[in-house]
Amino acid sequence: MKRTDIIFIIVFIGLFVPFFVSDKLYDFFVWFSTDWAFTASFIKFAILATMGEMLGSRIRTGIYLPEGFALVYRAVIWGFLGMTVKAAFMIFGGGTPVIMQHLGMENATAVMASPLTGARVLLAFAISTFLNIFYAPVLMVTHKVSDLHIAAAAGDRRKLLSVPDVKGLLASIDWNSMWGIVLKKSIPLFWIPAQTVNFLLPEEFRMLVAALYSTVLGVILALAAGKKV
């Protein structure tokens, strides 16, 4: 383990320790996550999902911040993606119970607020499935386009801040890898089960856990690429 690994671990753990030792900070976290939900989502994803990419880079290349990593740009992109994730959680979390009620589930709109039951697990699974089938592919492709834009800029700030050539970047995606690993495998094997668990948690924790999942996914995709830790 290198010195940078120790620093990374300390920083990662340090992000959470204050909320366990201070009731005031915990209460602030709940208030901020509820009343400033989109701002909180931006911050959570900007920090945690970017750290996930750094960890993935460490696994693939041996270093956290390779040349041209564009840390600030990645964080801003993840922040905005985090806001769309929050919107998707609200849309599918509110709409899926209505669909399930039409399909015969009694009082589906009230199930998520009830104690843990089989019906609640089923509803959480349904929300996660709809979310990951209809929204997750768009998120993943959008993130891939931003990733390729960063790579094409090669550390040039002017190119980085220029309008991405979306058409060209979409054409340059390795769709075999995108379909075979990111969509076909990670959605049913990781995202649907993981987000099912997430939707069983209190609402104020869901975006935090979703951002943490992105950190874990960075490791999974790096290992899936066949690189040794």
Fold and architecture overview:
The chain is mainly α. It has one domain (3-224). Helices cover 79% and strands 0% of the residues. It is built from 13 helices and no strands. α3 (23-35) crosses α4 and α8 (136-153) packs across α10 (166-172). The model has no long low-confidence stretch (mean pLDDT 89).
Number of helix segments?
Answer: 13
**What is the number of beta strands?**
0
Q: Uncertain runs with pLDDT below 50, 5 residues or more?
A: none
Number of separate structural domains: 1
Helix and strand pattern: HHHHHHHHHHHHH
What's the end-to-end separation, in Å? 11 Å
Q: What is the overall shape?
A: globular
Give the class from helix and strand content and strand pairing: mainly alpha
Q: Share of helix among residues?
A: over 70%
Radius of gyration: 19 Å
Short description:
The chain is 79% helix and 0% strand.
Keywords:
13 helices, 229 residues
What topology emerges from the helices and strands here?
Layout (H helix, E strand, L loop, with lengths): L2 H12 L2 H5 L1 H13 L1 H25 L9 H32 L5 H4 L6 H17 L1 H18 L3 H4 L5 H7 L2 H9 L2 H13 L4 H22 L5
Helix pairs in contact: 3-4, 3-13, 4-5, 4-13, 5-7, 5-8, 7-12, 8-10, 12-13
